[in-house]
Amino acid sequence: MAKNNYRRKKNKYNNGMNFILGVGLVLIGLASILMLQGTKNSSASQPVSRSVTPVEVNYPAPELSLQNINGQSESLTDYQDQVVLVNNWATWCPPCKAEIPTLEAYYKTHKVNGFVIVGVEAGESQKDVLKFVQEHDMTYPVWFDLKNAATNAFHNENLPSSYVIDRKGIVRLAWVGEISQEMLEKYVTPLLTEN
């Protein structure tokens, strides 16, 4: 009888330990799954530097006139006979900031070929934009757009968004998202040789 009691207690103890071990393994498994999901979610929320391919389009450039950072009024028609990349951006936009060095380098290389970038800042104060332009060594023209005239003119409120206008005033390329040097060379450079 004492042996049977001992066996029952031992079996009860072993069953209890197996139960605790099983629950512990299940909890470890759930914690692992949650950690993996947390890693996926946090990486999805981080800005990822990805170059996008432009969409080829064909329509007349919109009429657009805004004030530049020097306080003068400028218009897209002021750049007739040049290839113009209109870049809608904002100082607070991570992919906008990420593409500025690429745009600046491309502009400096190709401005001798009749290429210009018009950076249209979407809604920040003149003081903030001027500070940002100086800090990022931006030398291409920058316009203020307090009332979203550029995003309305191009019917796209996403940032960054860019549009390439050929020498005849036709919008030929449209981007939404960050632009790489490779995409500029592949798609914009050929337009520079067109008359």
Q: Could you name the ranges where pLDDT drops below 50 across 5 or more consecutive residues?
A: 34-49
Apparent shape? elongated
Number of domains: 2
- The succession of helices and strands, N to C, reads HEEEEHEHEHEEH
Query: Which architecture of the largest domain per CATH?
Result: 3-Layer(aba) Sandwich
Number of helices: 5
DSSP strand count: 8
- Spatial order of strands in the largest sheet: 1-8-7-4-5-6-2-3
What is the third-level CATH name, the topology of the largest domain? Glutaredoxin
Biggest sheet statistics: 8 strands, mixed
Radius of gyration: 29 Å
Report the sheet-strand fraction. 15-25%
Termini separation comes to 106 Å
Structural class: alpha+beta
Mean pLDDT reading: 83
Helicity range of the residues? 40-55%
CATH homologous superfamily grouping of the largest domain: Glutaredoxin
Q: Regarding CATH, which class of the largest domain?
A: Alpha Beta
Description:
- Helix 3 (126-135) links the parallel strand 5 and strand 6 (142-144).
- It is elongated and about 105 Å long.
- Helix 2 packs parallel to helix 5.
- It has helices at 2-45, 94-110, 126-135, 149-153, 181-192; strands spanning 55-60, 65-68, 73-75, 83-89, 115-121, 142-144, 161-165, 170-176.
- The chain contains five helices and eight strands.
- With 195 residues, the chain is of the alpha+beta class.
- It is 45% helix and 22% strand.
- The model is unreliable at 34-49 (pLDDT under 50).
- It folds into two domains: 1-46; 55-192, 3-Layer(aba) Sandwich (Glutaredoxin), CATH 3.40.30.10.
